[in-house]
Task: structure prediction
Amino acid sequence: MALIDNLSLGGLSLVFVLAALVIAGVGTRLTGYADRLADLTGLGEAVFGAVLLGASTSLPGVVTSVTAAHDGYAALAVSNAVGGIAAQTAFLAIVDLTYRPANLEHAAASVENLLNGALLCALLALPLLAAHAPAYTWWGVHPLSLLLLLGYVYGVRLAAEAHRMPAWLPHATKETRKDIPKQVNQREPHPLRLWLSFVAAALTVALAGYVVGRTGIALVQQTGLSQSLVGGLLTAIATSLPELVTSLAAVRMGALTLAVGGIIGGNTFDVLFIAFSDIAYRKGSIYHAMDEQSLFMICMTLLLTSILLMGLIRREKRGAGNIGFEGVLVLGIYTAGFLILSFGFA
Result:
């Protein structure tokens, strides 16, 4: 977009902030639509949050990564994808601070969220394998990209089956908040209207995501900052704002499983950004075009996800300052990781 590329640094910053505000504002409305549609479809908050809410709030990120990859900015594309996962995991710890009765990972116990967390760890490992495998491609696409897509589809199917016929259930406590569908009343909007509103909001945040992607590329060109730092910190946080605002809104609505499922599901979908970016990147395998900072971010994000998964399994009721051990570790590692990215690489 030539108009954005020709803006001054001040103009780029303004456009970037405005696009981020659109993503945050419209992303909030997605939560209300998703909560009602989860009940109307019978999918449940965890599955609906992981698939449709997670995917729709991830649209700004996928548009940003694909735009960067198409323009040849491989490190920006990958770091935006992985940086978004890291940021959203940190967001979950922040959201946990707003829920006073108990640790959010305890109250929103769900086997589907556990499955999605394990799936996310598996999917994050694939780009690391691809980066150290032969740089073989089919029509410019690495075979591991296809495996990423197939692994995601299979994992979502497992989560849906676990929702319908769980082999085991988390121990219920007085702090546990179950996903109980609300009764549909006559004043409820028609399902078609809900779907149309949901799609319109999703398309709006996708368009804003494209603007963020273009401004991110222009910022790399004008400031000389590394692609990984701009992607992992600036564009990743901007395009991840829907996950933060939708999770905060879900907690206020009492839809705790949706809040956790939306972030974990969004993170799982975000790994697919790398596969989509590999398709858009026409210079060969995007996995072999990643820099050391991108690889560092993937390893850090895999660690953050593993800690979150341990928190979901342990289900600590209350931690220091109403945040569990996993929240403290996630925020600490996230902060340290980006300090290393900012100052530790030559």
Notes: The chain has one domain: 2-164+190-343. The mean pLDDT is 81. Residues 2-164+190-343 form a domain with the A middle domain of Talin 1 fold (CATH 1.20.1420.30).
